[in-house]
């Protein structure tokens, strides 16, 4: 693999960002194998604080499996250093406690509970795990802050089950915020959203991304073009290319294996937008 395809240090070369020891994830030689098949093959990757970082690639490229390995859901070899810890060697619950969270393609919220209760439970579980004091009465300040950030203050008392698809995704991001996640992996957060919801989601990522490490798995290339600050392209378990949106779009290898079909699919899904 060529050196330019491996990691994001080029971002610091451009004078944009430098690694932050607390909220950067450095992945080295990460490999995930299933019965001899390498779903993720010797991946090196740097994920930086303050950067909305997109992982793209064809179906089966290894994007979700990579995130699964970094969040303790599948065993892997190699290392993923975060805040002095190796995520690869940790169990999933300890990874969450360390400040690493994720969402899934299908929002995992409690439909029968209110928006506020969902956030309260997520934040309460996290704080109890750390022995932190819980709010004795009223709504905790960190919950109020999350409600405002995700734009659901007006729906705080509504059951989560009545929320629109996009709003459920925002609630799930809010649940990571109240857990004080410093690293967030978001798996196709705008899948199934309309254009307005996609834009609001992109703006939400920008609002929360300044002080966090945000990694987004995404197929919607319009969304990637509008909101990605750094893009890593995977193909057949390996890193194919990395760079800004412009750099990745200009890469002939990416055009051959992914961008043509992705662009067609994006146009189809948007009715020609």
Q: Can you walk through the features of this model?
A:
- With 273 residues, the protein is of the alpha/beta class.
- The chain has a single domain, classed as P-loop containing nucleotide triphosphate hydrolases (Rossmann fold).
- Helices cover 38% and strands 22% of the residues.
- It has ten helices and ten strands.
- It has helices at 9-13, 63-70, 92-97, 115-130, 141-150, 165-178, 195-209, 221-227, 245-249, 252-269, and strands at 25-34, 37-47, 51-56, 77-82, 85-86, 100-102, 183-187, 213-217, 230-235, 238-243.
- A six-stranded mixed β-sheet has the order 6-7-8-3-9-10, sandwiched between helices.
- The longest helix has 18 residues, at 252-269.
- The model is unreliable at 1-17, 129-136 and 264-273 (pLDDT under 50).
Key features of this structure:
single chain, 273 residues, alpha/beta, Rossmann fold, six-stranded mixed sheet, four-stranded antiparallel sheet, disordered N terminus
CATH class: Alpha Beta
Taking all residues together, what is the mean pLDDT? Answer: 85
Q: Helices and strands: which structural class?
A: alpha/beta
For the biggest sheet, the summary is: 6 strands, mixed
Say what the CATH topology is.
Rossmann fold
Number of domains: 1
Q: In percent, how much strand structure appears in the residues?
A: 15-25%
Q: What order do the strands of the largest sheet run in, or round the barrel if closed?
A: 6-7-8-3-9-10
Short overview:
The protein is an alpha/beta fold and 273 residues long.
